[in-house]
Amino acid sequence: MADQNISMLNQLNVYKTDSVVRVRIIRLWRQADNENPSETYSIDMILMDEQENKIHASVLKKFCPKVEGLFVEKECMLIKNPTLGKIYSKFMSVDNPHKLNFAYATKVNKCEDFGGHLYGFKFTSFDLLLQNLVPQNQSIDVIGFVATYYKMEDVTKKDGTQSKRMCLQVQDLEQRKITLTLWGTYAQQMSDYLSTNEDDGHVVIILQFGFFTYYNGRASISNSYNVTRLLINEEIDEILSFKKMLDLLACTPGASSSNGISRPSMLLSFHDDFLISTEFKHIAEVDGIREAMSFIIFGTIKFIPRDVKWYYHACKSCNKKVTPVMISKQALDGSCDDEEQGYECNNSGCQGKVVEAVLRYKILVKVQDSTGVLDLVLWDREAKKLLMKSANVLLEEILSGDIDMDLFPEDFKKLVDKSFAFKVQITDYNLNHDYKFYTISKLTQDPTILCELQKKLNFDQNTNSDSMHGISQSFPSDDTINFKDTDVVSMSGDNTTPLSRLESSTGNNILEKSKTTAINLKRNLVEVYDDDEAQGYSTNKSRTTSKTIGKENEKHNLIIPKIEK
Ligand SMILES: [Zn+2]
């Protein structure tokens, strides 16, 4: 600049008290008084000069009335005789060890706009964050698009105050993903945006002055209290050109499907998934399922069969099961003198090529609840989490240990007699091939979820007759019985209350009252059906049996209020 008297922000030092700086306010916020949050302690700013050097600036409350009106975000100012303070906070909003303070001798004037950038972003690549190559006490700027998100939730902070939280996955142009946690007003801003702009395609965001943490091998970012700026799909150059790049990538032949994601998809929290959105079932009900679906069961792993292989080889590129083949190895002279084990992938993408294979878990577990036992398959992702090691590591341990010749890991014992809430998936494959080993798509031991499910079970059991257990054991595998058909029977009589309404009212005394009603109703029904029951079990004709069991089941539907979702 022609004006020799103006200093750049990185030239300021504590010895010189008559500096003049020309800056733009790129961020402005009010710092509340810790002891009295409704009072202002100071007005704080991030200032940037024309070379994009930045500094944190602060005006104590007593000086505020004099100068407050001069501070407008994005506008430029001339500041004469500022003083420099030391920054004590562990978290550095900007890369500058000093804080610019306003004292009695400090003079502030608005000035002409000097051009240049309005925000001065300095983006950090996801790569550096994921590899933990960035200091955790300095703010970062990131740009990316929202790939997935969870619904905003209410949380109680450590100090007992209430706040909002929202978790998202943000993705960059190279398909790298990082977790972003937004708190308070930032969570609200994001939630509001997503709920009011439903057909917007990509949601590109910039988080400026964000907070980076790396913990347990996981990188994540979040907002800081005040200084963070969150820009969502705004019409600024950085966001517009990022969107253009996304569109280009989506058009590139061979572009992976995840580049084609446009609209961010909402994920259900475990709480919503296990307690609200997915139907709860007893194991005894599972045999009657005739359509592909997911449901929740609450049970205990009782047994892991030793004679079933607990791992398989998967294709490294497509994750599908591979077939072992013998490949002839060529000796140096070109003759085939040896064979070695290889793997062939027959998945459409890999087209029968010999591929690299990795070992993955596929553990058959027998799960029991109060109504029966179910065969479930614990796949790699969930098994790895529970056992805290990969299938490969576990197999190597066993092979080197040389103890268990049938390759059955001791580690599995710690799963037995453990209770979980399982989200189980029944696929068309299960149904069409009568394949009764169902996939566990998720499982949890979250105490809140287990406790809620336990309540559900207790409620059912209290309104249930002991004969239920006898019947569940003698369910015939007769295809003519379709329990679905009887599902339409629900409690709609005058003297009963549907459970769904009970749940929403959550009045305990109403619940108690309804239990009594249901039990009374049950007594009446048991008397009515006593004859049929005796008849049903005394005959061997399957038709009569199925008819009777059908009625029996109808009775259950009357006794057990159907839980509506
Ligand atoms: Zn493959």
UniProtKB/TrEMBL annotation:
Domain Replication factor A C-terminal: residue ranges: 296-433
Where in the numbering of this chain does the Replication protein A 70 kDa DNA-binding subunit B/D first OB fold domain appear?
7-111
Origin, by domain of life?
A: Eukaryota
Query: What Pfam families does the database record attribute to this sequence?
Result: DUF223, Rep_fac-A_C, REPA_OB_2
Q: Which GO terms describe its molecular function?
A: DNA binding; zinc ion binding
Describe the location of the Replication protein A OB domain by residue ranges: 134-206
User: What InterPro entries does the record tag this protein with?
Assistant: Euk_RPA1_DBD_C, NA-bd_OB-fold, Rep_factor-A_C, REPA_OB_2, RFA1B/D_OB_1st
Which keywords fit this entry according to its UniProt record?
A: DNA-binding, Metal-binding, Zinc, Zinc-finger
Q: Is Transport one of the keywords? A: no
The entry sums up its family as follows:
Belongs to the replication factor A protein 1 family.
Question: PANTHER family annotated for this entry?
Answer: OS03G0429900 PROTEIN
Full protein name: Replication factor A C-terminal domain-containing protein
Q: From which organism does this entry originate? A: Mikania micrantha (bitter vine)
